[in-house]
Fold Alanine racemase.
Amino acid sequence: MALTLHVDGAKWRAAQDAALAANPGLVPVIKGNGYGFGPATLYAEASRLRVPMVAVGTYAEVPGALAGFPGDVLVMEPFRAAIHAGLPQVGEGRLVHTITARVDLDALLVANAAARVVVEGLTSMGRFGAPVEKVGDLMAAGHGEGVTLHLPLGSGHIDEISRFVEAVGGIRPFFVSHTTSDEVAALRHRFPEHRFAARVGTDLWLADRSAYEVRAHVLDVRPLSKGDRVGYRQRPQPAGHLVVVSGGTSHGVAMESPASAATARSRAIAVAEGMLEAAHRVRSPFTVSGTMPRFAEPPHMQCSLLTLPAGVTPPLVGDIVPVRMRLTTAYPDAVVIE
């Protein structure tokens, strides 16, 4: 019983190599669930790419990164004196801290006078960062190694990044997120004295969707008569077959972030999906016998109950079925790189 991420190693690594070739100097982002592959796997891949630095999301991820990757580790979460000052890894020489405020910088330098820092600028993303007019002072006070900018999704970032480059002054490396390779190339052309390094996660690890697939096992199959009740909630089922498959909420099955609903079409889809959920008619992400059957009830922690319609040939116990999942929310039992 397992939910497994199968990876075509040659195709997956070819996509990584292509991403690095298109964006020289990129900093791989390895955070959270490791984009479904697991952080340890990605540390090894970053080492294979021979990049000098990786970026992690939080200080909680630092020990694993330092152990799994031989180069520098940039922490994208800003250093906060009230939270991080006592962490043992603050003194680690390979660690690069993100600073957004003078009070935090001063506390970091008390904890480690030789601390390495980058200064985050407050962009239109609006999450955290120092206003553009204060970035230069923080850089000077902390002997900053560069400026980091986290941009919104989409394109059109060149002018916003340029404002920071022009305001900060001096020759500084800039670490930028959610920029295209064309934007980075344009910035290098506009400011040839500066180094621009894109922090890349999704477009590096998930670039070729044909290179990986999540798969589940069929654990049980039983015929259903109309009205048969199954599961924790004893919901009546239509005629067909009950198929029990590996993969549930602990793996991220059917776990989704809120929809952005930015367009009329996406809002209509969200409304339709809500109505189907209210009627207990939600389609599962599993493909069984060529169809995507509905959940018989919400997924369990480690398995799911599916209702296969009458007339569809049921699978056999032990069969393997593909699962359509967002890898950024997936926690497979195993990752198999072939």
About this structure: Residues 266-279 have pLDDT under 50 and may be disordered. The two ends are 20 Å apart (CA to CA). The chain has ten helices and 17 strands. The CA atoms of residues 92 and 124 lie 32 Å apart.
